């Protein structure tokens, strides 16, 4: 159930808004506040999915409410309600962080469309915040090899810029981790980071996933839906396995990069977006270009900065550090005491052919912790880490 707060000093307008919203969707729980001050007090005490706020009110006007709410609960979208003479102020509130504004008397379709989009965005922001908290704990760049040190140095230089980055490397090497570090160390770190696995989404759905759709655009489109580009507005969008994207979707991504605009599937309305794109692939995109599977102009747009993540076999000196890191993590997840690996066990692990890279190493470490002795020995490695 979506909880919506209406802050409006005119009782007649409040009644109209409540009627429109509750008739549109009986799952909307609508609460009223007759002035800005009481509205802010309610927001301090309870969580809301959306706030509709008038601009001209006694005690505390809409601009003051907006500024206060952005300090208290910045994730809550606020739609401003403006009279004819308030339009300049309404536009200014967008710069202060308002989601949108609607004019009085409210147009039915405009109001409902704005509310749906704002609620969709709120869901995505909340989910992204949850994932960011998880990511900040779970993602670390482990290693001191020359290759990893070079990547860390590149991230320090590139992250604060707006340059687009293409991350390449085999599966399981940690391309996603590099993308997260780029975002976390960027000026956009307080904004969302939205991930899209282009290989996991069917070709016929990738455009809807990236750019959203309008109601009726296709058979299962029973309501308007914001896409990942809109959700990433003000932050970063990570296009993982971008080499698997259809040519049609590539053309639209290229337009988004060139014009900072997207169009939802089934709509011809432009939506402005402000996102930084970080992409990753395990494919040789130059080969894909020569075979007609990837657009050369998109490649050059994405690969302003190229970061190559090496396979684990090329950074074997990092394996003891990675084993120690995974041992700590796995022991914590299983609620068991941490096991130690003998020097001979570590040496043998360094000699293995890690075709599955870091992902494979993590699985082997977990297996050894579960099946090995109190101190994981060389013999344990031979028994349980065999291919």
UniProtKB/TrEMBL annotation:
Taxonomic superkingdom: Bacteria
Sequence ranges assigned to domain Response regulatory in this UniProt record: 3-119
Keyword Signal: no
InterPro entries cross-referenced by the UniProt entry: AAA+_ATPase (IPR003593), AAA_lid_NorR (IPR058031), CheY-like_superfamily (IPR011006), P-loop_NTPase (IPR027417), Sig_transdc_resp-reg_receiver (IPR001789), Sigma_54_int (IPR002078), Sigma_54_int_dom_ATP-bd_2 (IPR025943)
In-chain residues carrying the UniProt-annotated modification 4-aspartylphosphate: 54
Keywords carried by this UniProt record: ATP-binding, Nucleotide-binding, Phosphoprotein
Protein name: Sigma-54 dependent transcriptional regulator
SUPFAM superfamilies, per the entry: CheY-like, P-loop containing nucleoside triphosphate hydrolases
Domain named Sigma-54 factor interaction: residues: 141-370
Protein species of origin: Patiriisocius hiemis
């Amino acid at each position: 159930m979506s909880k919506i707060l209406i802050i409006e000093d005119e009782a007649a307008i409040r009644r109209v808004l409540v009627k429109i919203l509750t008739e549109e969707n009986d799952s909307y729980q609508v609460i009223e506040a007759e002035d800005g001050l009481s509205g802010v007090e309610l927001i301090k005490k309870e969580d809301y999915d959306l706030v509709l706020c008038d601009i001209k009110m006694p005690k505390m006007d809409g601009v003051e409410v907006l500024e206060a709410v952005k300090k208290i609960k910045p994730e809550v979208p606020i739609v401003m309600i403006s009279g004819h003479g308030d339009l300049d102020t309404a536009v200014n509130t967008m710069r202060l962080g308002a989601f949108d504004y609607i004019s009085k008397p409210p147009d039915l379709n405009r109001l409902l469309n704005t509310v749906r989009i704002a609620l969709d965005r709120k869901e995505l922001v909340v989910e992204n915040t949850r994932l960011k908290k998880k990511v900040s704990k779970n993602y670390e760049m482990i290693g001191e090899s020359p290759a990893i040190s070079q990547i860390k140095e590149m991230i320090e230089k590139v992250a604060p810029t707006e340059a687009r980055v293409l991350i390449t490397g085999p599966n399981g090497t940690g391309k996603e981790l590099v993308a997260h570090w780029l975002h976390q160390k960027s000026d956009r770190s307080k904004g969302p980071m939205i991930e899209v696995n282009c290989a996991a989404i069917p070709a016929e759905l990738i455009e809807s996933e990236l750019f959203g759709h309008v109601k009726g655009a296709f058979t299962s489109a029973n309501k308007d839906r914001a896409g990942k580009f809109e959700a990433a507005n003000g932050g970063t969008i990570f296009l993982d396995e971008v080499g698997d994207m259809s040519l049609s979707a590539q053309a639209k991504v290229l337009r988004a990069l060139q014009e900072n605009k997207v169009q939802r599937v089934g709509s011809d309305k432009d939506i402005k977006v402000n996102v930084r794109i970080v992409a990753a692939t395990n494919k040789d995109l130059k080969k894909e270009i020569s075979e007609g599977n990837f657009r050369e102009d998109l490649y050059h747009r994405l690969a302003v900065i190229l970061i190559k993540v090496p396979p684990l076999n090329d950074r074997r000196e990092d394996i003891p550090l990675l084993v120690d890191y995974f041992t700590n993590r796995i022991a914590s997840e299983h609620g068991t005491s941490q096991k130690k690996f003998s020097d001979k066990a570590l040496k043998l692990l360094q000699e293995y052919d890690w075709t599955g890279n870091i992902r494979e190493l993590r699985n082997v470490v977990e297996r050894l912790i579960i099946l090995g002795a109190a101190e994981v020995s060389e013999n344990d490695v031979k028994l349980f880490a065999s291919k």
